[in-house]
Amino acid sequence: MLILMLFLLSPFIAAAHTHTHTHTHTERERERNLPSCCCAVNLHCTRSWLCADMITIPDLIRKKRDGGQLSDDEIKAFIQAVKEKTIQDSQTGAMLMAIWLNGMVSAEIKALTREMMSSGEVMEWPDEWKNFMVDKHSTGGVGDKVSLVLAPALAACGCKVPMISGRGLAHTGGTLDKLESIPGFKVEQSREQILEILDSVGCCIVGQTETLVPADRVLYALRDITSTVDSLPLVTGSIISKKGAESLFALVLDVKFGRAAICKDLESATELAQMLVEAGNGLGIHTAAVLSGMNSTIGRCVGNSVEVIESLETLKGNGPDDLMELVTTQGGLLLVMTGLMSDLSEGRKQISEAVVGGAALSKFQAMMEAQGVNSDTAQLLCSTNADYYSVLRKAKHQLELKAPADGIVLEIDGLVLAQVLHRLGAGRSKAGEPVNHSVGAVLLVSIGQRVTKGDPWLRLHYEDLALTPDQRNHLESALTVGADKKIQTQQKHTLVEKILPEKYQ
Question: What class of enzyme is it (predicted)?
């Protein structure tokens, strides 16, 4: 597989206050001395933000439907109406579809992202933290456990990581679901608790608060039911607005492409990465993007509990190469952007040493305890030769699938594995559904490995008494065994090119 890095930096973020505080949208408009009528948005008539003309919601929809470019004021009026629920869902859905059909230019995406961010609270941090506030975001993959390793590694290197993550939807797993497989781990934390954890530990992994980017929650729910989830401008606005609300100094984005990713090819992934980087820089965040292939899996484990186990093993120095490559590359970029390291090679080395040397594991243990896990439980999970299933939920049944023939493992289809696991309970089909943390799969072979007919290649953890024939057939179809290695190079997470500003080349 291929990783292509887009590394673009922006001007420094404005200095943060020396205490945690939030600004509401109303406070910002008051500070800018905008007239109060600028907030008057309703179903039938939306005043423009300049208060010179009357603009209706249908006017805005029609303009975008016909391929027009929305002004900053028009986008501001639309997002305000969404936030205040003075626009009908059908009208919002129509606007989303118009954006999906006609796209947005850079200026529109920048305005959309800014107004979504400003629809709720924006966190600020103590002055001494401002140059070290970092985070990462992945567009979603199979077995993507990078956050569980990267956040504590960055904290061990001197960064502050207020990581706001999400839950799984469809075939992609969610970081919060994985962490909640650890008994007692609380992903819901107040702003005050987040500040306290960052002060004592240096990292936290939490869910989105009710007051953070409320417009995004409305838009995302409607995108899901109007088939506009894959609109690149809307994806960009959703991701970057939330990261902007964290008041970050630096951000790295892992944009995935392939069968198991939202972007099916490198071209569309590159387009999305460029949008994300430009939008992040537009908010004053030093932003880089990494493009990585997502046809197979990251590491060997897919699920919730099993991915926590693999993450802990990685933090103990036993991680798979592809996972460590993603962790060290993304972490190294963030260390360079914060100025803690002078170049990517040194940054990657620093992250690797934090993981292999145990400093990141200590931070992960401290984070677990700070977020509600019993200290004995946290200590057991982080101990050498830990009995993980004395703490984590174990599935009732395990099944090993056998290789159908002699040969080389050419391909392991991550999308197929994720789809079957999703149906077995590891994922959810709609927001709010529970997940079964014990369901998962462990790969027993790797791409490029020679196997003999009958060798076990997958261990399935599941709860039902029996798999359906269709589920078993689907799982077995994920493995391709052949006589050559022509697919092997396409499956690896190998760094082959990096694009850096001249200063860092």
Answer: transferase
